[in-house]
Protein backbone atom coordinates (compact mmCIF):
# COMPACT_ATOMS: atom_id res chain seq x y z
CA UNK A 1 0.00 0.00 0.00
CA UNK A 2 2.88 2.40 0.77
CA UNK A 3 4.26 1.90 -2.77
CA UNK A 4 0.90 2.88 -4.21
CA UNK A 5 0.76 6.02 -2.05
CA UNK A 6 4.31 6.91 -3.08
CA UNK A 7 3.43 6.45 -6.77
CA UNK A 8 0.41 8.69 -6.28
CA UNK A 9 2.51 11.50 -4.77
CA UNK A 10 5.10 11.20 -7.56
CA UNK A 11 2.32 11.30 -10.15
CA UNK A 12 0.87 14.43 -8.55
CA UNK A 13 4.29 16.11 -8.48
CA UNK A 14 5.15 15.26 -12.08
CA UNK A 15 1.80 16.57 -13.27
CA UNK A 16 1.80 19.74 -11.22
CA UNK A 17 5.35 21.12 -11.19
CA UNK A 18 5.29 22.18 -14.85
CA UNK A 19 2.07 24.11 -14.25
CA UNK A 20 3.52 25.61 -11.08
CA UNK A 21 6.59 26.87 -12.96
CA UNK A 22 4.45 28.18 -15.82
CA UNK A 23 1.97 30.14 -13.73
CA UNK A 24 3.78 30.95 -10.48
CA UNK A 25 7.42 31.26 -11.56
CA UNK A 26 7.00 33.14 -14.83
CA UNK A 27 8.95 36.20 -13.61
CA UNK A 28 11.77 34.15 -12.14
CA UNK A 29 14.73 33.43 -14.41
CA UNK A 30 16.57 30.16 -14.52
CA UNK A 31 20.12 29.98 -13.24
CA UNK A 32 23.01 30.75 -15.59
CA UNK A 33 24.90 27.57 -14.67
CA UNK A 34 24.41 23.97 -15.73
CA UNK A 35 25.28 20.78 -13.86
CA UNK A 36 28.75 20.46 -15.44
CA UNK A 37 29.65 24.08 -14.69
CA UNK A 38 28.71 23.56 -11.05
CA UNK A 39 31.29 20.77 -10.86
CA UNK A 40 34.03 23.27 -11.71
CA UNK A 41 33.42 25.26 -8.51
CA UNK A 42 35.88 25.03 -5.64
CA UNK A 43 35.75 21.89 -3.46
CA UNK A 44 33.31 22.23 -0.51
CA UNK A 45 31.51 25.17 -2.12
CA UNK A 46 27.74 25.21 -2.45
CA UNK A 47 28.09 25.14 -6.25
CA UNK A 48 30.40 22.12 -6.34
CA UNK A 49 28.33 20.22 -3.78
CA UNK A 50 25.18 20.95 -5.79
CA UNK A 51 26.86 19.70 -8.97
CA UNK A 52 27.87 16.51 -7.16
CA UNK A 53 24.32 16.16 -5.83
CA UNK A 54 22.99 16.18 -9.40
CA UNK A 55 25.69 13.80 -10.62
CA UNK A 56 25.34 11.32 -7.72
CA UNK A 57 21.54 11.19 -7.91
CA UNK A 58 21.29 11.26 -11.70
CA UNK A 59 19.18 14.43 -11.50
CA UNK A 60 18.97 17.32 -13.94
CA UNK A 61 18.38 20.93 -13.01
CA UNK A 62 14.78 22.02 -13.39
CA UNK A 63 14.69 25.60 -14.69
CA UNK A 64 13.41 28.11 -12.12
CA UNK A 65 13.38 25.41 -9.41
CA UNK A 66 17.09 25.30 -8.62
CA UNK A 67 16.67 26.57 -5.04
CA UNK A 68 14.69 23.45 -4.20
CA UNK A 69 17.78 21.30 -4.68
CA UNK A 70 19.85 23.68 -2.55
CA UNK A 71 17.26 23.27 0.21
CA UNK A 72 18.09 19.56 0.26
CA UNK A 73 21.75 20.35 0.83
CA UNK A 74 21.32 22.96 3.54
CA UNK A 75 18.59 21.09 5.45
CA UNK A 76 20.09 17.59 5.11
CA UNK A 77 16.74 16.27 3.84
CA UNK A 78 17.01 13.29 1.52
CA UNK A 79 15.06 12.99 -1.71
CA UNK A 80 12.71 10.20 -0.65
CA UNK A 81 9.04 11.16 -0.68
CA UNK A 82 8.59 11.44 3.08
CA UNK A 83 11.68 13.66 3.39
CA UNK A 84 10.49 15.81 0.49
CA UNK A 85 7.28 16.42 2.42
CA UNK A 86 9.23 16.98 5.65
CA UNK A 87 11.38 19.54 3.85
CA UNK A 88 8.24 21.42 2.84
CA UNK A 89 7.18 21.44 6.50
CA UNK A 90 10.63 22.78 7.39
CA UNK A 91 10.26 25.53 4.78
CA UNK A 92 6.80 26.35 6.14
CA UNK A 93 8.30 26.64 9.61
CA UNK A 94 10.97 28.89 8.10
CA UNK A 95 8.30 31.27 6.81
CA UNK A 96 7.84 30.19 3.20
CA UNK A 97 4.27 30.55 2.00
CA UNK A 98 2.89 29.48 -1.36
CA UNK A 99 -0.20 27.72 -2.60
CA UNK A 100 1.96 24.89 -3.92
CA UNK A 101 3.69 24.41 -0.56
CA UNK A 102 0.35 24.37 1.27
CA UNK A 103 -0.93 21.80 -1.20
CA UNK A 104 2.09 19.58 -0.60
CA UNK A 105 1.60 19.85 3.17
CA UNK A 106 -2.09 18.95 2.94
CA UNK A 107 -1.68 16.12 0.45
CA UNK A 108 1.46 14.75 2.11
CA UNK A 109 -0.19 14.69 5.52
CA UNK A 110 -3.30 12.97 4.18
CA UNK A 111 -1.36 10.39 2.17
CA UNK A 112 1.33 9.71 4.82
CA UNK A 113 -0.29 10.47 8.21
CA UNK A 114 2.08 8.05 9.97
CA UNK A 115 4.91 10.57 9.39
CA UNK A 116 3.12 13.50 11.04
CA UNK A 117 5.47 13.43 14.05
CA UNK A 118 8.47 13.71 11.71
CA UNK A 119 6.76 16.49 9.77
CA UNK A 120 6.09 18.50 12.94
CA UNK A 121 9.73 18.05 14.02
CA UNK A 122 10.80 19.40 10.60
CA UNK A 123 8.44 22.36 11.05
CA UNK A 124 10.03 23.17 14.43
CA UNK A 125 13.51 22.81 12.93
CA UNK A 126 12.56 25.36 10.28
CA UNK A 127 11.34 27.76 12.95
CA UNK A 128 14.68 27.49 14.75
CA UNK A 129 16.72 28.44 11.68
CA UNK A 130 17.47 31.83 10.21
CA UNK A 131 15.00 32.65 7.46
CA UNK A 132 16.63 31.43 4.25
CA UNK A 133 13.81 30.35 1.94
CA UNK A 134 13.89 33.66 0.03
CA UNK A 135 17.67 33.80 -0.53
CA UNK A 136 19.11 33.93 -4.03
CA UNK A 137 21.36 30.88 -3.77
CA UNK A 138 22.79 31.41 -7.25
CA UNK A 139 24.74 34.33 -5.76
CA UNK A 140 26.03 32.08 -2.97
CA UNK A 141 27.35 29.20 -5.10
CA UNK A 142 30.95 30.23 -4.31
CA UNK A 143 30.40 30.05 -0.56
CA UNK A 144 31.50 27.15 1.63
CA UNK A 145 28.45 24.91 2.16
CA UNK A 146 29.23 24.05 5.79
CA UNK A 147 29.66 27.73 6.66
CA UNK A 148 26.28 28.51 5.08
CA UNK A 149 24.64 25.67 7.01
CA UNK A 150 26.21 26.82 10.27
CA UNK A 151 25.04 30.39 9.63
CA UNK A 152 21.48 29.27 8.87
CA UNK A 153 21.30 27.13 12.01
CA UNK A 154 21.88 30.24 14.16
CA UNK A 155 18.42 31.69 14.79
CA UNK A 156 19.65 34.90 16.38
CA UNK A 157 22.90 36.56 15.46
CA UNK A 158 24.87 37.08 18.66
CA UNK A 159 25.53 40.70 19.54
CA UNK A 160 28.58 41.49 21.63
CA UNK A 161 28.75 44.78 23.47
TrEMBL record:
This is Ubiquinone biosynthesis protein COQ4. Keywords: Ubiquinone. It comes from the Bacteria.
Amino acid sequence: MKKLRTKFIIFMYENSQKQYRKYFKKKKRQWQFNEDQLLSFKQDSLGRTLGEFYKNHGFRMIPKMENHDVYHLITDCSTNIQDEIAMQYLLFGNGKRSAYLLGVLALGTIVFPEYLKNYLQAFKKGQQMKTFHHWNFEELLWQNLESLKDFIKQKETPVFY
